[in-house]
Amino acid sequence: MPRASRKDSILEAALACFSEHGVEATTIEMIRDRSGASIGSLYHHFGNKERILAALYVAGTEAYHGFLQDAWQHVDGAQSAVETLVGSYIDWVGQNPDWARFLLHCRGRVEAGEQGDTLRQHNREHFLWIERQLKMYREQGLLRELPRDVFTALLIGPTQDYMRHWLAGRVQTPLEQCRPLLAQAAWMVVKT
Amino acid sequence: MPRASRKDSILEAALACFSEHGVEATTIEMIRDRSGASIGSLYHHFGNKERILAALYVAGTEAYHGFLQDAWQHVDGAQSAVETLVGSYIDWVGQNPDWARFLLHCRGRVEAGEQGDTLRQHNREHFLWIERQLKMYREQGLLRELPRDVFTALLIGPTQDYMRHWLAGRVQTPLEQCRPLLAQAAWMVVKT
DNA sequence: TTTAATTCTAGAAAAATATTCTATTTGTGA
DNA sequence: TCACAAATAGAATATTTTTCTAGAATTAAA
């Protein structure tokens, strides 16, 4: 296996800087110092600061999507599917707080930027993947008939909200305790 | 009534620029041009760019809190309270999309900045106000006993999630149609 | 293995942006 | 009217981002 490419080491350094100082406060120079790359190298690989953000964003969402799809192996039934959607989100954010903070913080910014379309395409595909997974349960009448966007909001909204507060250090209830509550509530509100 | 002060006109111009070009892309110069103020005046009133954001953020949250407290006049019973929390959020965001986009986009940034404590204090007070309003219903046993942070996430999480997507133009279901669905779901998941 | 082409790296130079500073003007109370 | 503070202006400075030119490393073809 090839060791981390220069490109990757720049991304890694960028995430570390963002976590440490916040996205707005980190300068190209800080990323240069931390990664050991030169300005020229940095701009060769990414072109500008915004595209560093975008690349990092895509890498993060892909990591999360992969995590979810791995967890999906053990899904067995509609309730288990809902529980996995909620639980995987909690687990991944819990295990990767720096990534998660970055993704939550920069979503709007990256979507508004030039890579917005790419990103939206990515997300749409992930969404469709979930749709395919739930199709069967829907056809069996196990899930409420709701506009798709409302369904999604009901299912994952509370969890996203909770984890956003957790990342900001605004909540005390330990994750292990919330997990079943949130999973159960999601199921309650989404089942027929 | 005094007409808009220079300070206010700067804030107004800033919000307009942010809505039009995004927060990251607007420069001090753009705000200067749009507001008609000079650089000196701008820095006299706010000190730096970050503090313009913070002031705008505080103004926005205050507007929303006021809106909610007005709507609270008509609350009558626990279900009505839940419905008002959800409905007011939808209404305010629907009527003030620029404000809402800005608030959602910048929360993390402002909280991480020097005004973070002030802001957190503000939010805590608002949160406590809601707590006081719900206390009675809680004592009557009408609301589920849950860790407070989980309760909040269940109540408002789906709505916040939905409105975030609405602001980004990612959903089609009209707000009038979602409103009762979200309110009803919130009540379902939060009532005893 | 040499050559040519391409990719990558480097850092100085330029451009864009944010902030400070000094001077003037405006308003306000004694 | 005078003294003083608050507000405004824009030039000067500092910081940060981006571009540009040149050289080093790598790859592929001959």
Automatic annotation (TrEMBL), chains A, B:
One of its GO terms (molecular function) is transcription cis-regulatory region binding. Residues 4-64 form the HTH tetR-type domain. It comes from the Bacteria. Transmembrane segments: none annotated. Keywords: DNA-binding. Residues 27-46 bind DNA. The keyword Nucleotide-binding does not apply. Pfam families: TetR_N. The keyword DNA-binding applies. InterPro entries: DNA-bd_HTH_TetR-type_CS (IPR023772), Homeodomain-like_sf (IPR009057), HTH-type_TetR-like_transc_reg (IPR050109), HTH_TetR (IPR001647), Tet_transcr_reg_TetR-rel_C_sf (IPR036271). This is Transcriptional regulator, TetR family. It comes from Atopomonas hussainii.
